[in-house]
Structures are given as structure tokens and as C-alpha cells.
Amino acid sequence: MEETIKSTGNKKLELALKKTAVHIDYHIQNYTKYSLDSGVLDSINGLHIGPPKVAHAEAPYIHLGVKRVSSIQGYRGSHPVISGEKMIVTRGDKVLAYNKDSGKQLWVIPLEGDLNRLGGSLGSSPSLA
Questions:
Q1: I want to staple 38 with a disulfide (CB 3.0 to 4.6 A). Which of 33, 51, 70, 87 is the partner?
Q2: What 3-state class would DSSP assign to 10?
Q3: CA dihedral in degrees (67, 69, 73, 63; nearest 10)?
Q4: In what helix (H) or strand (E) does residue 74 lie, and over which residues does it extend?
Q5: Residue 110 burial by CB count (10 A; 0-12/13-18/19+): exposed, middle or buried?
Q6: Please, is 129 exposed, middle or buried when counting C-beta atoms within 10 Å of its C-beta (0-12, 13-18, 19+)?
Q7: Higher model confidence: residue 112 or residue 39?
């Protein structure tokens, strides 16, 4: 599974930002602690057999790696923050900075935790203070 960060029509930048995305790969996310915990929450809410058909849960499962109602409702994604020439974004198990025009990676900060075991995303969207 891959993801890209959409920009304002800069196709070169979008191509540079295309990365493998374990945190939205349903082949991996389906077997994580996050998925199991979401199933428990769904069961508590009477959804032990899964989301109702009208929820169309197959779309978020394919595109975001989540299929339980609680994980679909809780999905936030990551919204990039622009600071000067930098675009900062959280991607699964790391926070990264890119040059906002070229897409060149400037730095990366790994987040603690095993994304393949825990699931979801290990960080929220970045913010500036």
C-alpha cells in the first residue's frame, strides 16, 4: 500500500512524496492490537458481526486499512503543516519534514512502538506553536 500527500497541483512534489504506508495497509492492520481493540468496542456497541451493509465499510478498509466502526470513526489521517519552506507530516511511525517545493526529505523523527503489532498511527498530525 502506498500513500501520497496531495499538494496544490504540483505533480512532481506529489510523486516525490509517494511512500509505502504500512499504517494504512489492510493486510497488516487487520491483525493489529488496534484492530482487535476496535472489534471489542464494536461488540460492546452491538456490532459484534461487523458494520451494517449500509455503512459501506469496504471503502475505508481498502483505502485506510480500517474496517471496524470505531476505527473508521476514529480515523483522522495526517494533515501536513507548512512552516516556511518545510512541510511537516506524520506518517504511521515517524514525523518527517520535506521541502515544500521539491519534496526532498529534510529530516525524520522515528516514533516509539511497533506499527506492525500495534496498528493505527503512532502519532497525531503535527502542529506548530
A1: 70
A2: coil
A3: 20
A4: helix 69-74
A5: exposed
A6: exposed
A7: 112
